[in-house]
Amino acid sequence: MLALAGATPASGGSTQAPSWMHVNADKKTASFDILMAENGNNGTLNFNGYGHGEMTIEVPLGWKVHMHVINKGEGAIPHSLEIMTPAEGVPQQAVQPAFPQAETIDLVPGMSVGKSDDVDFVADKEGKFWIMCGVPNHAVGGMWDWFIVSKTATAPSVTFKKQ
Q1: pLDDT tens string 110-147
Q2: CATH number at residue 71
Q3: Is 9 domain-assigned?
């Protein structure tokens, strides 16, 4: 089932944006609270409970993006976050981020349980990117979702394939 947040479905009904997304349209800023290993989904390899591309965050081209990233610690292992240009296959570990500063601290070793970091960047190039964990083998294990920068989007949105 497809659930949209921050958008109006074609059927005319409205949906609510997730509580972890905050938008300031006047300042063209989108803020997201990203909880790594929030629950046991995908063996704790998840962002806000999603992995394997089940979640898509979309922002308009040119907007400022702020992600407050927390390793919630379900599973008690380190995690990180990076926005990366997709390649042939999901990489074993972190590589160069798609946008300057679009990565957490401790990218390869990962942030320990309870640790947090703020990721701030401008979504200044259009395309479809991965949100992925840079810890070796986590992205390959499914700890990745989608981040889209769109020149046609008028507001940020979050889409879920399933929950």
Answers
A1: 999 999 999 999 999 999 999 999 999 999 999 999 99
A2: 2.60.40.420
A3: no
In a domain, 79, yes or no: yes
- Burial string for 51-60 (b: 16+ CB within 10 Å, else e) reads bbebbbbbbb
Separation CA 133–CA 144 (nearest Å) = 7
Burial of 3 (0-12, 13-18, 19+ CB in 10 A): middle
For residue 16, what pLDDT is reported? 63
pTM of the model: 0.89
Which pLDDT value is given to residue 95?
Answer: 84
Which residue segment(s) compose the domain that 50 sits in? 31-156
If one counts every other C-beta atom within 10 angstroms of the C-beta of residue 114, the result is 9
